[in-house]
């Protein structure tokens, strides 16, 4: 019969010295080694020694380097002899100790949306079992430990959870090379800063700048919207900074900063722009001539802008003959011509 006379454990990278010994046969048997069922090349020749009584003692030594892949593998010594039809064998199972190696993955596609659940998994391959540590990397504060189990669950995930998570494992033989997984969290825009609020007073011809700071993931696009006094909504700009170079009464109204990305949109509180200046007639709406028949009534309307509100009068008479004119207060009537 055959027997193995060496220990069964080793560290990865070491060499195992093994002996397969067969005693009692005649003639001497043929010995060989197999690993995982595959024949191994011989590192030394078989040594046969004749014992008293005419029987043989045969020894076949094997020197083999082992790695983590050999853990749990079956190593066999095979004995072939002319007195038996089938080869006989004896085997041992190798136990190889090695430091950890980790792999990481995430349960959800990256990026993810705020409010969902994200599970990070770290698988450590080692013998003996390793202790797992999760860290969240920070460019300024270093790395904070956030977990010590194979899974790290962010539920619900929020924008402050975004970052790089690193897993490492350690056992008695060493520390693994860390592996990292990024977590990108998308969320709807928020307005975090506005350069003005409430009522913004500006004089005609003056320059004013409105600034809007919005955050979101992905980064939001910006629009400046103005609602005029007539209710019309105008787009005034597409940048975080809106520059009113020469203020006019056309800028009178309510301004909002609108931020939008693929997750959602938000508008700032309105800024009421109040334009002050001397009176200006709306020349596009002013009618400069009226043709009437004798005896007709005439209602003359002129629109103008001013702040503060001015006193408005009408002068009735020939142009350039101020001494022969009649002054009317706005809203009054005059006798029929």
* Residue runs with pLDDT of under 50 for 5 or more positions: 1-7
Overall pLDDT score = 87
**Measured distance between first and last alpha carbons:** 142 Å
Largest sheet: 7 strands, mixed
Give the count of helical stretches: 0
The tally of strands reads 30
Helix content: under 10%
Tell me what portion of residues adopts beta-strand conformation: over 45%
Structural class per helix/strand content?
mainly beta
The ordered string of helix (H) and strand (E) elements is EEEEEEEEEEEEEEEEEEEEEEEEEEEEEE
How would you sum up the global shape? rod-shaped
Rg, Å, rounded: 46 Å
Plain-language structure description:
This protein has 337 residues and is mainly β. The strands form 7 sheets. Strands 20, 22, 23, 25, 26, 27 and 28 form a 7-stranded mixed β-sheet that branches. Strands 13, 14, 16, 17 and 18 form a 5-stranded antiparallel β-sheet that branches. It is rod-shaped and about 155 Å long. The termini are far apart.
């Amino acid at each position: 019969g055959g027997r193995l006379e060496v220990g069964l454990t080793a560290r990865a990278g070491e060499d195992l010295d093994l002996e397969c010994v067969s005693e009692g046969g005649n003639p001497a048997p043929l010995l060989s080694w197999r690993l995982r069922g595959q024949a191994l090349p011989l590192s030394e020749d078989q040594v046969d020694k004749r014992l008293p009584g005419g029987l043989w003692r045969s020894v076949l030594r094997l020197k083999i380097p082992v790695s983590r892949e050999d853990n749990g593998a079956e190593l066999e010594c095979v004995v072939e002899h002319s007195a038996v039809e089938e080869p006989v064998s004896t085997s041992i199972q190798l136990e190889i100790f090695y430091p950890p190696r980790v792999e990481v993955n995430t349960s959800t596609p990256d990026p993810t949306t705020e409010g969902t659940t994200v599970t990070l998994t770290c698988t450590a391959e080692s013998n003996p079992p390793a202790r797992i540590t999760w860290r969240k990397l920070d460019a300024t504060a270093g790395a904070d430990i956030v977990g010590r189990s194979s899974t790290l669950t962010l539920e619900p995930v929020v924008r402050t959870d975004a970052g790089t998570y690193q897993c490492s494992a350690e056992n008695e033989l060493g520390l693994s090379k860390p592996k990292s997984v990024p977590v990108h969290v998308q969320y709807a825009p928020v307005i975090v800063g506005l350069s003005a609020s409430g009522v913004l007073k500006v004089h005609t011809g003056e320059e004013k700048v409105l600034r809007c700071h919005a955050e979101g993931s992905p980064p939001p696009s910006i629009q400046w919207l103005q609602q005029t006094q007539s209710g019309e909504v105008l787009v005034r700009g597409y940048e975080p900074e809106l520059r009113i170079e020469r203020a006019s009464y056309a800028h009178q109204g309510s301004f909002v900063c609108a931020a939008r990305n693929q997750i959602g949109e938000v508008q700032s509180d309105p800024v009421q722009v109040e334009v002050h200046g001397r009176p200006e007639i709306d020349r596009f709406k002013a009618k400069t001539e009226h043709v009437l028949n004798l005896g007709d009534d005439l209602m003359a309307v002129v629109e103008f802008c001013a702040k503060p509100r001015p006193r408005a009068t009408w002068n009735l008479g020939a142009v350039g003959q101020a001494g022969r004119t009649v002054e009317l207060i706005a809203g009054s009537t005059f006798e029929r011509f």
